[in-house]
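Bug report

Summary: structure tokens for Steroid C26-monooxygenase differ between web form and batch submission.
Environment: batch mode, default settings.
Steps: 1) Submit the sequence below via batch. 2) Compare with the web form result.

Sequence submitted:
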Amino acid sequence: MSAPTMDEAAKVFVDPAAYADDARLHAALTHLRAHQPVARVESQHYRPFWAVTKHADIMAIERDNNLWLSEPRPLLATAAADDLGKQQLEAGMGLRTLIHMDDPHHRDVRKIGADWFRPKAMRDLKVRVDELAKRYVDKMRDIGPECDFVTDIAVHFPLYVIMSLLGLPEEDFPRMHQLTQEMFGGDDEEYNKRGKSPEEQLAILIDFFTYFGQLTASRRAQPTDDLASAIANGRIDDEPLSDVDTASYYVIVASAGHDTTKDAISGGLLALIENPDQRDRLRRDPELMGTAVEEMIRWTTPVKEFMRTAAEDTEVRGVPIKKGESVYLAYVSGNRDEEVFENPFRFDVGRDPNKHVAFGYGVHFCLGAALARMEMNSLFSELIPRLESIELAGAPQLAATTFVGGLKHLPIRYTIR
């Protein structure tokens, strides 16, 4: 069976600007789900891959982590960046986070931080998160009647939570925010301060590793009761984590732990602004907050994709995939699959069931999912009852990306009591 020719719609996967244009993106994804749900993608700057756009196929691949491996290509990057990353790892300076690993090493490394995100830990943290939610809604009130919700509120609330969990000093928060923007925002001109080349992006990674190397030394010398100390002193088979694995653990928690939540919070508020009937429904029935949060996460899908590589010859929906070939799990598409979600383009705060794949699935299910849900629940539970009016004060702007992203600006006009 010969490989199908590349559908023009599949070009969206290698075009960061497509994720800044919802209409264009979803038109392409809808077309691919209907006509080429396993689409071959070839591009000048990327190695070829297969884009998987149906929810059922994404779930099946996520379930079978023996057949579908994260290494060596866990996410979409240019061929030059892939090569540089491999060279950096060989030199002991690359990034190897949980998303890069396969079992059994992935399982062992994940255990080191898992207790900090279990239900008991979340219950213990909830009082503090609720306090921070009130602080930021109060701030929103105080700086009103207009603000940029992304830069004034949505960035800072989850950043403060995750940095506090790690036990980092507040004066370091702005630095961590800048590094995260540069790491995840390299495809967007506004965020890209150092350039797009792999060598320029390496400078960002070196800054992360320098900062967290100092943190590791400090926590090993004087352990404390925080997540940073748990990572610094984590052991596998009675051996400490390697320098690469330790620094990488910090990077994924500090960066993904707040940036993705920022995207879900800001995109969730925009959805409530654009769907006032759903906002009113949520105000009348606060018991819907749990399902509302899940719908915001489905709607925004901050992590756009991960990739897997076939460990042996196989097929997806009848399309042969050879050993060593990679598939792109299009979470944004899976979360609009008409076969899974009734009226998938309707924002519904009471949607139930809501089997979205925004947190992934299987062994790589997002470690911080419970924390993200709690943060969103706390913030919107504080905001919605106090919000007397809200409207756009300008055009929302989405960031260009191929991996993690969402709104970079959300100008609003409002009254809060």
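Above is the batch result. After comparison, the two runs are identical; trailing whitespace caused the diff. The chain has one domain: 8-416. The domain at 8-416 is CATH 1.10.630.10 (Cytochrome p450).
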